Amino acid sequence: MILYGISTCDTCKKAIKSLQAAGKDVTFRDVRANPLSTAEIDVIVAEFGDRVINKQSTTYRAFGEYLRVSDAEAQIAAQPAVMKRPVIQDGSTWYLGWDSVTEAKLTNA
Asked: End-to-end distance of the chain based on CA atoms, in angstroms?
């Protein structure tokens, strides 16, 4: 299982803690420190579309007009922190965000 996020994200920390407590083997990928490749971004955007962009974030609001009208791939490539977090890959299944439904599915709670 791979959890994509940033190291300062409280939601990512909470998700990792819950998954590890449930005995899951979690690999954390800090997308700021270890940016996603174009192919990785393409897979994530293909899975979630525009929903992967956090349009309420200060990162998104700081975008200039060019990036605001760009596609999600360009936005994530320019500023990885604009991606909603966490993005979790569990085999061939993907999850976006961390809520009670996702937690129940992944921790078998």
From this structure: 17
> pTM score, two decimals?
0.92
| Catalytic (active-site) positions | 9
The answer to whether the CB of 52 falls within 8 A of the CB of 45 is: yes
Q: What domains sit in the chain, N to C, each tagged with a CATH number?
A: 2-107 (3.40.30.10)
* Cα–Cα distances in angstroms (integers) from residue 79 to residues 3, 36, 41, 84, in the given order: 18, 11, 12, 12
| Tens of pLDDT, residues 62-93 | 999 999 999 999 999 999 999 999 999 999 99
Beta-carbon neighbour count of residue 48 at 10 Å?
A: 18
